[in-house]
Amino acid sequence: MAEPDVLVAPSTIEYPFRRTTGPVIGAFLTALREGFLVGIKSSDGKVIVPPVEYDPYTADALTEIVEVGDAGEVTAWSWVAEPLDGQPLDRPFAFALIKLDGADTAMLHVVDTGGDPAAIATGMRVRARWKPPRPVGASEEDDATGAHRVGSILDIECFVPEGEN
Question: What is the helix, strand, coil percentage profile of the chain, to 5?
Fold first, then answer.
């Protein structure tokens, strides 16, 4: 039996729009681009970092953005002895939960100890190492290397033990 003719119609799926991040996540990403961190006050007055749009316990909409420090305390960590391609650092490092100064919750990021697993501990103080700001007049597209801040969590290259650069 012969196969019937197959009807083919080429089509292209496009999404010709950009999604807005909204007032809460947008404020967080803007702050990152500018080189500082913000959280949001929950219904009970605690500061959540990164900020969320709704209270995790009451589901109330949250709107009070507050600045927090870019240094804090390691509350938990996991050592990565052999980084994989695509991970934030090309040498051994720790993924850590960091409770920033002024925050009541911890956020996940990377701690660079120069590859020394003995240099990280729960309770130690760390500080953000920021990428430099994008030069005036340069667009995000001009910075294909990712070497400058653009409004991403990766604008913080890593955290380092306090007192180091």
Answer: 15, 30, 60
